Every structure is written in C-alpha cells, then in structure tokens.
C-alpha cells in the first residue's frame, strides 16, 4: 500500500503503463521538464526520454492529429490537454477524425489514443480553466468517456484507458488532484472494470449520481443528510460512455428518487441523458422526477462567483429536498 | 531523433537596434527615428510606470489579492514601443500579458486587475480605448484582428490593427490562418510577436527551427526582427509597419526579440526548466536601464527627473493597491448578466430560481 495524491496516482499509473508497453507515449504542452502544470507527468521524461515523453508545439489540434498518426503507426499516445478550455482547438480532430476513423475503416484501424483533460472549477482560476466539457464528448459516438474521482480510480483507470483499443477521453478532477489515499499497487485483483460504476455509499431513500469532482461533494451531502434522517446512496459513475446502466437503474428502482449532480450546466448536460434513461426504464418505481443539480446555463463565471455557480452541499441537499417534496 | 539544427537555418538573423544595452544610439538605414528629449523622457516614464504596475500586481497576487498574474517584466520596451506607435484610430488585440500596451491605450491599470482578481472576465470597454479584451486562449485574437482589419479596409478608413501574441502562439493553427487571411486580403495589420524565448516551460526550439520573423516570407509579407528591449527600435519599426498597413501595403510580422524575466505567471516555477544564468545575461539588456543611461549620458535628464519618475511610480503603485483592495465583489446574480443581449427565457428562469434560493438562506 502506498499513500498517493490523485495527481501522483495518475503519474504512477502512466509510469506503469509505459514500463509495460514500449509503445505508450506521453505528449502535450509542458509535459517534459515541467512535468505538466499540475505535475501529473513529473519525472517521466527524465526516466523515459524525450522520444517517449514529448513536449509538443503549442497547438492542440496538432497534438491530437499527430497522436492519430502515431496510433496508425502502432503507438499508444496519451495526450495531455493543459486545461479543459483548451480542448476546443482539438475538437475537430477529436470529433471528425479520432472518433470516426475506426468505424470508417470497418475495424481495420484502431486508435488507442487517450486524451487526458483536467476539468472542473473550484480552484479560483481565470476563464477557460474551469470548464466541464464532457457532454460535447459523450455526444460524440466512437469515444469512450471516463472521469476519475479519487486516487485509486485514477491509478487504475488511466492504465485501463491506455490499454483500451478505442479512443478514451479521460477527465481528471483538477480540484481533487491533491487529495490523498492509500493505493494497493501490488495487485490488480481489486481493479474494477474501466466502465463499471461504483456505489461509493449505500443508501435507501434516494440516489445521488455523480462523477469526477462532484463525487466528494455528494458524499459530504449524504453525510449531512444522515442528520436529517435521510439515507442517500451515492454512485460514482466513473464512466459516462459507456454507462453502467444496470447499476444505475437498480439503484433508481430501489430508492425511487434520483438526483444527478455535475458541475457542467444543467441545460443539455449529461444529467439530461441520465434522467431520460432512468425515466424510461424505471417510471413506475419513481417517487419523484429525476432532478438535476449543476452549473447554470451561463459561461463559467469569474472566480469570485464560482462558489455560487458550482453545485455545493447545500445545492445538492436542496435538490434532494425537492425530490422528497413530490 | 534529434533535429539537425543546420537544416533549414540560414544566415544569422539581423536585429534592428537603435539603442544599445549600454545606452548608445546607433543608426539604421531603414529605421530612423527622430525623438526629442521630451519624447525620450516620456518613453522612460512609461517604461518605469508599467514596470511598477506589474510589480505591484505580482505583490498583490502574493498577498492573495489576485488569483494569478502574468508579469510583463522584461517586455516593457516591446510593449511601450509598439503601443506608442499606435494612433487613436488603430485597434490593438492583446494576449493576457499586454499591460504595457494597455497603459498606452489609456486603460486604467486597476481595470486590468479585474480578470486576475476574479471579479470579471474583462473589465474595460474595448471601443473606448481601441484596445480589445485580453484573450487567454492562445492565438485566437490574431484572427479577430485580421477580421477587424478587413472591416477597416471595407470602410475605406485610414487605420490599422495590431495583433499581439507570443512565440509559443506561432504554432497555433489560428495564428497561421491569420497570416494567410491577412496576406490574401492584404489586410491592414501588424502582427507583433513578442518572442520572450519561452512558452511556459518550452523554449523556442520546441516551436520553430527558423527565426520567427522569417515565417512571414512564406506567407507572402515582410517579416522583421527588432530588439524587443530597445524601445526606440520597437517604436520605429512598429510605426513604419503600421503606416504601411494604413496605406494599403498589407501586413507585416514583427518579431520583438525579448525575454520573459519573470515566471510565466505567478503560479509557475521557472527553476524547473531554465537556468539562472540565462536571466543574468538578459538583465544586462534591461529595457529601462539603457534609456536611463542614454538620458544621463546626453544630459537630457537630471537626477531630479529620475527621482520624480520614481516618486510617481511609488504613488501609482500605492494607488493601484488601494483601489484593488476596494474593488467590490460582484453580486451573485451577476452570473446571469450579459450572457445574451436580449431577454432570454432560460436566463430569466434560472435567475429567478437562484434569487429565490438565495432568499431562502437570508430567512
Ligand atoms: C489554446 C491554449 N492552449 C494552452 C494554453 C495554456 N497556456 C497559457 S500561456 C501558454 C504559453 C504561451 O506562450 P507564448 O505564446 O510564448 O506567450 P507568453 O506566455 O510567453 O507571453 C500556454 C501553453 C492556452 N492558454 N490556450
Ligand atoms: Mg513566450
């Protein structure tokens, strides 16, 4: 067992993947000597050399486009996008090429490219540094989309994502980079499958669905709700596409009330998909509509206002209250 | 797999310089400039004051009053020289580091702090100053600048735009597209690239095998490298390029060869990727010291003048600090302001819901 921060867990996971497979490459802006602005790639260039840990020119479309070419040549590039807001120059390559090329080739081409994106707010940053762009990618067929919420998952999921033969969009909750946990690095037996969701706190009265940075917020909300005599189940989705539907639906049927929580705007957010699926398949089990707590339908605000924008414990509990109001 | 540095390289680049680091005035056949002692004192004052603004902002960040700050330290001459070359009708498109240009465009320094303090995303009216909002996404603004220049063309106006960007930005697709558009449409624009040698931790070699100014020729317009720490040269070269743009001669790329003397931003730690001796070497080329030396040597300013400028700088710093601390936090409901220019049902709905939610806490 080793105590690791989430960023260190990603670092160790990538190191392991690079040791296991010489085709694994790291590429991105400032990933070399600097170790990335969040130090997630710290020390990797020193140990694996500049051919495998590549400081790229400052061009996100170039990063993903060349990663595709490297993948065509048999490499497994792990691309770092420095901040969520800077994935958009790469959106064309991701959406029109990365996501669709394998299908167009009738399976002849595999693109095992991982796109790591630090996401979410709560760190007092300037604009474009606090975005939650997951819905753009879950809406794009051909991409697997996952989000880790804690160090242990970061450690396992990054390795599984690198091993996946499909492109994986890998969201990292930047405000949780420094949180620590004990990780068993000696065995892989405890690893859940990449696309499995996890009940991180069992409960009976309502289900909170979250992923990435909001899992911790939901756990805190569940603890607070206990004082009001409410037993909340918290599910960490971990994977948005594919979705672990059976686990989600089972919980929804059992508790009868579901609140989806994400930082991204509620309007047209990933929660809408969850709500629709749960409603379709659990209609007669539900005591209330599936409710959503999330960001407003506005651009991410200046940091002095982010505490108001981001769903917090009170906003989650408010949604839970509303669910019990039906 | 190392790059052969010799391939693609040509003769060593020429650098337009009018004032040496030692404060000696030198002539250049293409770029001369006629500056009165008063002009030079005024440039000196600008340089000192923007450095003071910058230092104060760094200090404010250290004390938690700003979330982050991108320092212009070392780049004062590039920014004051180019900024003072602009006329009122010209339009400037900055990155996040152009505090010196903002100064030349009469943007109140305290307004620059809003974005970094997290109270707004902009803070000034671009139209009032002909100075666009800061752009954080690398390279985006170069295309806006070209489009604006195309508008000037269509208005038959005698004006130009200037687009600021860094050495790292030259790799972005947007910047390369902006070169193409400017060239094809012969747009009245000056591309002003401050090559401060670093894009966060990446040295210039990670972006280019040739000196950046030479990129222009492939796009079909002139490129020129200027000593970015020489305020006279930056002024002269930018003035000439702007004039060419205004008179229908199309774009110019200016590479201001300078150095980022501070960290990339206040959250950066340059000791991880560059050696201290580099900074020491560049300190000898400080953009302010050489103007001071020139003024002294040529007896165009006395100690009283320098003391007065220092006094003014101290006052400016103190004033900036006071007004930064007095900046009010935005109201929570401001989140919903200005997202759309006309009323919008969802905005109204969410605003009302959130107001009721906040009201619930007040009770
Ligand atoms: C599209 C995009 N990608 C990445 C970043 C993160 N980032 C901010 S500044 C910077 C380096 C910019 O270097 P340069 O263009 O040389 O300008 P300088 O900061 O040196 O003035 C990077 C990579 C960004 N802001 N926008
Ligand atoms: Mg630079």
Please give a structural write-up.
The complex is a heterodimer of chains A (326) and B (363). Chain A has 2 domains: 2-183, Rossmann fold (3-Layer(aba) Sandwich), CATH 3.40.50; 198-324, Rossmann fold (3-Layer(aba) Sandwich), CATH 3.40.50.920. Helix content of chain A is 36%, strand content 21%. Chain A has 12 helices and 14 strands. In chain A, the strands form 3 sheets. Chain A has a 7-stranded mixed beta sheet, sandwiched between helices. In chain A, strands 9-11-10-13-14 form a 5-stranded mixed beta sheet, sandwiched between helices. In chain A, helix 3 packs parallel to helix 4 (91-98). The radius of gyration of chain A is 19 Å and the shape is globular. The model of chain A has no long low-confidence stretch (mean pLDDT 98). Chain B has 363 residues and is an alpha/beta fold. Chain B is 44% helix and 9% strand. In chain B, strands 1-2-3-7-6 form a 5-stranded parallel beta sheet, sandwiched between helices. Chain B has a two-stranded antiparallel sheet with strand order 4-5. In chain B, helix 1 (37-62) crosses helix 2 (76-85) and helix 2 runs parallel beside helix 9 (231-246). The chains are: A alpha/beta (326), B alpha/beta (363). Bound molecules: thiamine diphosphate (TPP) and magnesium ion. Magnesium ion binds at residues 166-168, 196, 198-199 of chain B.
Offer a quick outline of the entry:
With 326 residues, chain A is α/β, with parallel strands linked by helices.
Strand order of the largest sheet of chain A: 3-2-4-5-7-6-12
**Helical run tally of chain B:** 13
User: Spans of chain A of 5+ residues with little confidence (pLDDT < 50)?
Assistant: none
Strand tally of chain B: 7
- Radius of gyration computed on alpha carbons of chain B: 22 Å
Nearest-angstrom radius of gyration of chain A? Answer: 19 Å
N-to-C series of helices and strands of chain B: HHEHHHHEHEEEHEHEHHHH
């Amino acid at each position: 067992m080793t105590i690791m921060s989430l960023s260190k867990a990603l670092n160790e996971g990538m190191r392991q993947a690079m040791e296991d497979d010489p085709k694994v490459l790291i590429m991105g802006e400032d990933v070399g000597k600097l170790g990335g602005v969040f130090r997630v790639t710290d020390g990797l260039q020193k140990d694996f050399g500049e051919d495998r840990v590549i400081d790229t020119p400052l061009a996100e479309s170039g990063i993903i486009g060349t990663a595709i070419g490297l993948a065509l040549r048999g490499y497994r590039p792990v691309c770092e996008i420095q901040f969520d807001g800077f994935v958009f120059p790469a959106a064309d390559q991701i959406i029109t090429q990365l996501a669709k090329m394998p299908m167009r080739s009738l399976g002849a081409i595999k693109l095992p490219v991982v796109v790591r994106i630090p996401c979410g707010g709560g760190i007092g940053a300037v604009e474009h540094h606090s975005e939650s762009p997951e819905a753009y990618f879950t809406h794009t067929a051909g991409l697997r989309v996952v989000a880790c919420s804690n160090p242990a998952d970061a450690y396992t999921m990054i390795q599984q994502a690198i091993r996946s033969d499909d492109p994986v969009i890998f969201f990292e909750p930047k405000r949780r980079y420094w949180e620590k946990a004990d990780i068993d690095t000696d065995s892989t037996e405890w690893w859940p499958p990449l696309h499995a969701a996890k009940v991180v706190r069992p409960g009976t009265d309502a289900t909170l669905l979250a992923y990435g940075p909001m899992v911790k917020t939901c756990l805190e909300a569940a603890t607070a709700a206990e004082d009001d005599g409410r037993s909340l189940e918290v599910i960490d989705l971990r994977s948005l596409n594919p979705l672990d539907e059976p686990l989600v639906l089972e919980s929804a049927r059992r508790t009868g009330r579901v609140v989806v929580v994400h930082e991204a705007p509620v309007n047209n957010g990933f929660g809408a998909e969850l709500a629709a699926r749960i409603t379709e398949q659990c209609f007669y089990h539900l005591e209330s509509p599936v409710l959503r707590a999330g960001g407003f339908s506005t651009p991410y605000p200046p940091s002095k206002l982010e505490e108001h924008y981001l769903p917090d414990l009170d906003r989650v509990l408010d949604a839970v209250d509303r669910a019990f109001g039906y | 797999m190392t790059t052969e540095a010799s391939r693609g390289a040509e003769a060593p680049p020429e650098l337009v310089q009018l004032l040496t680091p030692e404060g000696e005035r030198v002539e250049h056949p293409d770029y001369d400039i006629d500056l009165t002692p008063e002009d030079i004192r005024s440039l000196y004052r600008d340089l000192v004051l923007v450095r003071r603004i910058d230092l104060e902002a760094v200090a404010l960040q250290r004390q938690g009053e700003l979330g982050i700050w991108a320092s212009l330290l070392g780049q004062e001459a590039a920014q004051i020289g180019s900024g003072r070359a602009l006329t009122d009708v010209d339009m400037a498109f900055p990155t996040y580091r152009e505090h010196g240009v903002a100064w030349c465009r009469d943007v109140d320094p305290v307004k620059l702090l809003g974005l970094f303090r997290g109270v707004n995303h902009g803070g000034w009216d671009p139209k009032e100053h002909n100075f666009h909002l800061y752009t954080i996404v690398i390279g985006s603004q170069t295309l806006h600048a070209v489009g604006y220049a195309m508008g000037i063309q269509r208005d038959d106006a005698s004006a130009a735009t200037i687009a600021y960007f860094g050495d790292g930005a030259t790799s972005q697709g947007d910047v390369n597209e902006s070169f193409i558009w400017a060239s094809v449409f012969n747009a009245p624009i000056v591309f002003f690239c401050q090559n401060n040698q670093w894009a966060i931790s990446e040295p210039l070699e990670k972006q280019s095998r040739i000196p950046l100014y030479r990129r222009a020729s492939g796009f079909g317009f002139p490129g020129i490298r200027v000593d970015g720490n020489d305020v006279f040269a930056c002024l002269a070269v930018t003035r000439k390029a702007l004039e060419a743009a205004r008179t229908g001669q199309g774009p110019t790329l200016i590479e201001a060869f300078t150095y980022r003397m501070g960290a990339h931003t206040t959250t950066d730690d340059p000791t991880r990727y560059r050696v201290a001796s580099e900074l020491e070497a560049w300190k000898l080329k400080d953009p302010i010291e050489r103007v001071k030396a020139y003024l002294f040597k040529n007896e165009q300013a006395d100690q009283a003048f320098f003391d007065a400028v220092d006094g003014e700088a101290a006052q400016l710093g103190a004033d900036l600090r006071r007004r930064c601390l007095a900046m009010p936090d935005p109201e929570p409901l401001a989140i919903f302001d200005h997202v759309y220019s006309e009323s919008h049902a969802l905005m109204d709905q969410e605003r009302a819901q959130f107001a009721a939610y906040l009201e619930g806490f007040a009770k």
